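Let us practice reading a record.
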Amino acid sequence: MAKQTSAPAVPGSFLPDLGSPRSLVGAWAQLSVVQYFAAEAAVIEAWAAPQPYDRRTGFISDLGAVNCAVYDGRDVCSPLHLLMNASFVVQGLGLLLGALLLGSAMLCIAARPGVRILQDTAYLKGRSGAIGARILTGAAGAGTVIVGLVPEDYGSPWHFAGALMYFIGGAFALLLLGFLWLPHTRMSWFLLACGTVCFAALIAGAVTRMELPEPGTLERLMAYPLTIGFSAAGLLIATRVRRVRRIAASAAAWDRKERM
């Protein structure tokens, strides 16, 4: 993507449509995943097990368990489990909408206004990366929807599978976006950092099988960077799309005034 430029039009180049309502909805949908932190805090506050919930030792899925019981030696009782599971589903739907509505051309340039894309080999590679990021984001979204619909105490393997889809798909999606966005925004380094932290924690979890003094801390090193990274990417895109829409609206208003 190094050949992208904002120079005058040349044959074989085009400007992505950044101002469409679809782009704005997709960006806000991806930004909406940040609601998870508010939901988690509320659910932890309502925790009713004998021992207070500790983010360092408690698993995230414990907050969505439907029944009060002992799971793997942990006393679990989450009265607001419906809120936690609804938050998982909303988070997943936000990622799915972002993956569906944010176009590959836009993702290639991080919605950077005025950038003209040359339809050459570099673009084809970047477009493939953007499509891959969208697929991985969609997989991560589907995974967290499954986590919300199939709580841990249902005893279904789908809960674990959904969590893996979210962690693995999300980590690779952020890494891909980070590399794609390197020429266009400093946010790329933040996305790379988020993806790297999640991926490293995921490997540590696989090696230790989560049998360590603070499994909750390790799980949150997988989950939190994804939520933060995706919401940051959504905020950047939403900000740039709104800027383009404001400029277009001002230009249209000025044109109407000139015609009067």
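A brief commentary: Helices lie at 21-31, 35-45, 81-101, 104-108, 121-149, 157-181, 187-208, 215-259.
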